Amino acid sequence: QVQLVESGGGSVQAGGSLRLSCVGSGYTFGSSCMAWFRQAPGKEREEVAVIDGFGDTYYANSVKGRFTISRDNAKNILYLEMNDLKPDDTAMYYCAAEMYRVCSGRFGYWGQGTQVTVSS
After folding, report:
1. Upper half-sphere CA count for residue 32 (Cβ side, 13 Å)
2. What would the DSSP string read from start to end of 64-84?
3. What is the number of other CB atoms lying within 10 angstroms of the CB of residue 118?
4. Closest CA to 117 of 78, 85, 81
5. In angstroms, rounded to a whole number, what is the distance separating the alpha carbons of residues 117 and 12?
6. 7-54: per-residue pLDDT in tens?
7. 119, 13 in Cβ contact below 8 A?
8. Do 23 and 34 form a contact (C-beta atoms < 8 A)?
9. What is the pLDDT at residue 104?
10. 119 alpha-carbon distance from chain centroid
11. How far, in Å, CA of 25 to CA of 77, rounded?
């Protein structure tokens, strides 16, 4: 079955960096649209970054220029490099997958999340 396992979260000070990883298994990783979402307490879930099965990327305006999504299809790993972190980036971060190269926005598979906390 499809499994997504995130890691790499932690606590950092504002201006710091973290790299999140998400290992996918049980499906053809390289042919899938994948994304990072986040959700802070009391807030709606937000789509942070998306990478389709062709390597094209999309970023939310709030992270553009600071975050980079990438994938290693040989290792089945999705990454989110986060730089210049701000307290507003504090949230639980989730990776998600669709089983198609072209993204439809209907992510049917989710990881368990990894917590990112940014202090001022």
Report:
1. 26
2. TTTEEEEEETTTTEEEEEE-S
3. 20
4. 85
5. 6
6. 999 999 999 999 999 999 999 999 999 999 999 999 999 999 999 999
7. yes
8. no
9. 94
10. 20
11. 9
Joined tokens for residue 74 = 């040989």
DSSP 87: G
Helix, strand, or coil here: 89?
helix
Q: What is the pLDDT of residues 64-107, one digit of tens each?
A: 999 999 999 999 999 999 999 999 999 999 999 999 999 999 99
* Backbone torsion region of residue 76, taken as left when φ is above 0, otherwise alpha when ψ lies between -120 and 50, otherwise beta: left
Q: 45: phi > 0 → left, psi -120 to 50 → alpha, else beta; which?
A: beta
CA–CA–CA angle 100, 93, 44 (5° rounding): 90
- Tell me which amino acid residue 82 is: M
DSSP letters for 16-52: --EEEEEEEESS-GGGSEEEEEEE-TTS--EEEEEE-
